[in-house]
Specification:
heterodimer, A: alpha/beta, Rossmann fold, 6-stranded mixed β-sheet, 10 strands, 26% strand, globular, B: mainly alpha, ABC transporter involved in vitamin B12 uptake, BtuC, two-stranded antiparallel ribbon, 77% helix, 2% strand
Chain lengths: 245, 323
């Protein structure tokens, strides 16, 4: 197996006197989907913020493709090739799909003005590749369905991520058909040779999509299992702490 | 899936045609035709009267450009009317002692400075712009009154008055040049630059803008500073046109500017707007003013009609937003 694209080692995060995360270690390999599961308050969102660069860990190291990195905001995370699909999607509803794709990173033409042609072309190309079924790159986000919006948010992350895509509850707000659609898109991301870390409450989804499952309980990593070699009972036991030792 | 897809396309086409985007143009034409018919014997349609409307609305149009940026970013600037008076008075006083160049710098500088104060309080102290600019509106209305003890200051520098109001270049009045240039630059910055895109994103979804690496406080500071600077420019235009400055300048403009911007298709809550729409909105408010005067309506009746039009515009704006 190739080298891990993301490596977390002994990550610890304190907020004042509270320890949100301790002794957390995890590796994500390119082309792999790792699911992060845990009960509410287990520290998943803190971990998302650490990996995306929003919160620097109190101690421990983050290594991207073998190089240790320090990050203190999301811009630095993005510069390292890490993209997050937030639970609320972070889309500007009244702007077009293509403006959202390039939000904050708009390409300019030689006059220093927005290069709309390029944004539209690249958006259409990617949307077709990922099979995100939207009416057009010109569509306004608020005219799209929940699944289409999720598709746009994933497409945006895919466009910019060179190393890792972090998906935070990508289907929590979607219906059955749309969930299946988004799962197919996530599945197709594996070919892009980036690491994918997915946070989900749905164990069905976790077992459908992931290669490995990492369980978090009360800020600690309880264990990592290969999806093929475990079952729901074991994972539930690990999440709830009722595992027979 | 294919049939569901087609359904979405049809739906989005229907919803993309929203009334709010075109109401200003329809309204403009309707009001124009109404006055053209009603006032056909009162001189409404004369070239002189129509060009007068454009000249009179120039300061309002300039201020409206600033407010489009402010409102698109999800903020509001209520202090523009007070800034007009402070900038005009500051320029008039400075011109009398130090000449035209100094007067322009001080007048525009006053507007920019007040805008910066508004912006800093909103962006970095995180106070709501409504309250900040409500306070500075009152504060600088007081400043403009105390500056000259309510006296009017005349502006006799002919280069200044020519440049900023009463002169013309190539047969076109300078106020029209100012309007055209401000609209062209404003439209370009708003529509075609990264800054414009970031203003819209900030007003649309500040969190999304922020996680996308846009400096949301920087945008808030910038839009309020632009608005202050443009209100300062409007003050210079008033001083140049009237060849005098007084604390009453700009006093009643706030309502007109807000109405022009909202009628022009800029959403109150940010994320969407139009500079060209604001121009047409401003011309529409000017035409309305002019026509109502020619029809012989009293000042109070004019205020009532203008208020009703703003109400209608806000209703359309909010209806569109909550759809």
């Amino acid at each position: 197996m190739s080298a891990p694209i993301l490596q977390l080692q002994d990550i610890r995060k304190n907020f004042g006197g509270l320890t949100a995360i301790e002794n957390f270690s995890l590796e994500v390999f390119p082309g792999e989907i790792v699911a992060l599961v845990g009960d509410n308050g287990a520290g998943k969102s803190t971990l998302v913020k650490i990996i995306s660069g929003v919160h620097p860990p109190s101690s421990g190291t983050i290594t991207i493709e073998g190089k240790p990195v320090t990050m203190s905001n999301a811009t630095m995370g993005r510069a390292h090739g890490i993209e997050v699909v937030y639970q609320d999607l972070a889309l500007a509803d009244q702007q077009t799909v293509y403006m959202n794709m390039f939000l904050g990173r708009e390409p300019l033409n030689r006059f220093g003005l927005l290069d709309r042609r390029r944004m539209i072309d690249e958006t259409e190309k990617l949307v077709k590749e990922l099979d995100v079924r939207i009416p057009s790159a010109h569509a306004t986000i608020r005219d799209l369905s929940g699944g289409q919006r999720q598709g746009v948010a994933i497409a945006r992350a895919t466009h910019w991520a060179s190393k890792l895509i972090l998906l935070d509850e990508p289907t929590a707000a979607l219906g059955v058909a749309e969930t299946a659609r988004v799962e197919a898109i996530v599945q197709s991301l594996k070919q892009r040779n980036v690491g994918i870390l997915i946070i989900s409450h749905s164990l069905d989804q976790v077992f459908k999509l992931s290669d490995r499952i990492c369980v978090l309980r009360r800020g600690k990593q309880i264990g990592v299992r290969e999806t093929k070699k475990t079952d729901k009972n074991e994972i539930i036991a690990m999440i709830t702490g009722l595992q027979q030792q | 899936m294919t049939s569901a897809n087609t359904g979405t396309e049809v739906g989005s086409f229907a919803s993309r045609f929203n009334l709010q985007q075109y109401v200003v143009y329809l309204g403009f034409v309707a009001i124009f035709l109404f006055f053209a018919f009603m006032l056909r014997d009162s001189g409404f349609l004369t070239v002189r009267n129509l060009s007068n409307i454009v000249l009179q609305t120039a300061p309002v149009t300039i201020m409206a450009i600033g407010l489009v940026f402010v409102m698109s970013a999800g903020e509001i600037d209520l202090s523009i009317g007070s800034i007009v008076a402070v900038a005009a008075l500051a320029a008039a006083v400075t011109i009398a002692s130090y000449g035209m160049a100094a007067g322009i710098v001080v007048g525009l500088g006053a507007g920019i400075l007040i805008g910066l104060i508004n912006g800093a309080l909103v962006a970095y102290v995180r106070l709501p712009s409504f309250l900040v600019t409500l306070a500075t509106m009152g504060l600088f209305a007081g400043v403009s009154r105390s500056m000259t003890d309510l006296r009017s200051i005349s502006v006799t520098n002919e280069t200044f008055t020519g440049f900023f109001g009463s002169g013309s270049l190539l047969g076109v009045p300078s106020l029209i040049w100012w309007t055209v240039i401000a609209i062209a630059v404003g439209h370009l910055v708003y529509r075609e630059t990264r800054f414009g895109a970031h203003v819209l994103a900030t007003g649309d979804n500040a969190r999304a803008a922020s996680v996308s690496g846009i400096s949301v406080p920087g945008i808030r500071l910038a839009v309020l500073t632009i608005s202050g600077g443009l209100a300062g420019l409007a003050g210079l235009l008033y001083a140049g046109r009237l060849q005098a400055a007084k604390y009453t300048l700009g006093e009643t403009d706030l309502m007109t500017v807000i109405a022009a911007v909202i009628v022009g298709g800029t959403l109150l809550n940010g994320g969407k707007g139009s500079i060209i729409g604001a121009l047409v909105g401003s011309l529409m408010m000017g035409m309305l003013n002019n026509g109502l005067i020619l029809m012989g309506l009293s000042v109070s009746d004019q205020m009532i009609v203008r208020g009703l039009i703003i109400l209608t515009a806000v209703a359309v704006s909010l209806r569109d937003k909550s759809r």
